[in-house]
Specification:
By secondary structure, the protein is an alpha/beta fold. Helix content is 33%, strand content 18%.
Amino acid sequence: MSVVSSTPTVTAVLPAYNEAALIADVVAQTAAAMRALGLRDSEIVVVDDGSRDATATLARGAAPAGVPVRVVSHLRNRGYGAALRTGFDAAAREAVWVMDSDGQFDPADLARLLPHYRFDRVVTGYRIRRSDARMRQVNNTAFFALVRLLFGHTVRDVNCGFKLFPSAVGRSLRADGALISTELVLRARRAGYQIVEVGVPHYPRRAGEATGASPRVVLRAFEELWRLRRDPSSLNGLPPPA
């Protein structure tokens, strides 16, 4: 296992859509994990992607000791990729830690990724045993078989919402939907970043409603895939690690 020579400052980016039942707990657990790992001068950015419930209010009301929380809200639901891009643009620390806000990851598992982090690496989780509905898993398998056909291998579980990478890697992405994870990994690899894959547990959703298998989300993913195939210029826009 590689050990970081110096612990980075970290922005935790938490995309959230209609997660009022969970968001306060997720923010508190995220802050606790950052404190336990000694991540000084770090922050949490919650991106409320046009929620129709009290997600934004509850996220703003969360005030964990020692870790500042900012909430950035979209006026309408713009999609998972758009929420991540907003969070990446708002991130003010050296590294970005992406974690979905649906309670299916344990923030304490950042401890699995952090020892592998370096300024020239993307550390991406893969779900050891995925706890999603069968149809969502089938859609995911079929879609990423097509991604591999068009672009070659990405990583074992490119859509896993648990990643740690230098903040520069998240800048200037284009996808508004689920393809953003593929775009991020492919672009980082082309720029010379190492990709390290680490297994993380994945838990059943305890509340809220998953949207990843909705026809609108699936259709957008295919549209963005074909758009990227026709114009892959965004994959060349990242400078090599300094």
